[in-house]
Amino acid sequence: MIPDASQALSWLESHPDSIKGIRRGIERETLRINPDGLLATTPHPGCFGSPLTHKWITTDFAEALLELITPVDDDIDHLLAFLSDLHRHASKNLGKELMWPMSMPCKIHQNQKIQLAQYGSSSLGQMKTQYRQGLKNRYGALMQIIAGVHYNFSLPLSFWKSWAGLDNEKSEKEIISAGYLQMIRNYYRLGWVIPYLFGASPAICSSFMQGQTSTLPFEYSKNGMLFLPHATSLRLSEIGYLNRSQNTLDITFNNLEDYVFSLKKATQTPSKKFITMGVKDKNENRIQLNTNILQIEDELYMPIRPKRVTRCGEAQSDALKLRGIEYVEVRALDINPFSPIGIASEQIRFLDMFLIWCAIADAPDIDSLGLRNTRKNWDLIITEGRKYGQTINIDCRETKYLVSEIGKNLFDDLNRIGKILDNFNKYPDYQRVCQNLQKFFENPDLTYSGRLLPILKSSGLKNTGLSLAVLYKEKFSHESLEVLKTHSFINAAKESTLNQEKLEAADTQVQKFNNINTID
């Protein structure tokens, strides 16, 4: 049913220190809204500094889509305290505006203009805005303002040295990269447990479907909401933050060389669909960066991505090719509306255990057809995951298994990992998470979406989201900073503004030089 990881778990239990020092980072997106629950139309607040160069507070697709970013951390409590401080600072500097506490957008007027994120006059800043213009024209602005939480995760070098036999005679890049790719393959096969447990978008505002068609059998509520009775994460569905045309890219995760080659090919291969759009409109305004399948590598929408910190001006694929995979970016998390900061400690602890399991459980190679077949399991869980007695198949076999049975077997393994991780702390926090979340498989109504949908059906998506946004703003407005200081934010804003000015000044100097050299 699931890979037999008993031997790997026994090894881990005899080498507990190998997983001490897990490193994590969080990127949380949230829409700014007005007190009436509608999307804010104001620019990104100047007091936050430059979204182009700020290390903690930036924007994603739109001016109204905030993104709060933590540094990498090996302590969960400190990580969440840092993220909370970012929310406290943002709340206190948004005036009357609020942060929308859900993934799917608030009510959007039919003709409302969604302002693309602005990053200044530098060539880098202009490119980032033009890239977003391309996203808008390719996929529509509404899809691009869907918010999520990205969880960045890396295992310590000590793990790879012990587990993979890493030594000076072997290539660190190749062995660690192969280990992360094994993790990713298992994630594709069983990662649907993430939307099952934590999916929190079983419904959408009817305004989200402007001009869109869908094969999903939506039900209508009296308060202008569309929902599926057993859905977990419409954010990950066919109407969500997904590009199904990318399924044809043949990007697999069996070895680093093939992954990098396929990623580069996608950014260099013209798309028939995007060629018809052209690069500029009739007024010579750029409408996309290029006509390739992917404008840039960031356009690859996946529920998990292999990553490496890049150097200045370096493409992600080049960094991976030269130095290998450094961490993974988990992208399947909805905003947790039950948490003021969009994510809870139990989710982090689950992801720690699950990703460790994915790294050590057997993961045969998987081809593009296999990946598409795993998507069927994801789709089933996303749209019908909470149906009692729901079954899925594993690795395209004819035999179907109960989701609850798979969950029980998985958590039997995760609990063993949790015991190891709890040995590093005073309290059995990981084991408590296992005990709590395992109940979700016994009773789907306990899942995040199962708890949320009855509230939405009763009060409506707008009223529920607005009530939570007001509650969280009130909370943050009365709390003191925990790990940061006010001057930390002031200095970070000044530094970001200065760095943007330096980029723009450098571009000006280059332009002057080019102009001088073009004079006869």
UniProtKB/TrEMBL annotation:
Gene Ontology process terms (BP): glutathione biosynthetic process
An example Gene Ontology molecular-function term: metal ion binding
Keyword Cytoplasm belongs to the record: no
Keywords of the record: ATP-binding, Glutathione biosynthesis, Ligase, Nucleotide-binding
UniProt catalytic activity: L-cysteine + L-glutamate + ATP = gamma-L-glutamyl-L-cysteine + ADP + phosphate + H(+)
Keyword Nucleotide-binding carried by entry: yes
InterPro entries cross-referenced by the UniProt entry: Gln_synth/guanido_kin_cat_dom, Glu_cys_ligase, Glut_cys_ligase
SUPFAM superfamilies per record: Glutamine synthetase/guanido kinase
GO cellular component terms listed in the entry, alphabetical order: cytosol
EC number: 6.3.2.2
Signal peptide range in chain numbering: none
Pfam families: Glu_cys_ligase
Domain Glutamate--cysteine ligase, chain residue ranges per copy: 12-380
Pathway(s) annotated for this protein in UniProt: Sulfur metabolism; glutathione biosynthesis; glutathione from L-cysteine and L-glutamate: step 1/2
Family: Belongs to the glutamate--cysteine ligase type 1 family. Type 1 subfamily.
Descriptive protein name: Glutamate--cysteine ligase
UniProt source species: Candidatus Erwinia haradaeae
Gene that produces this protein: gshA
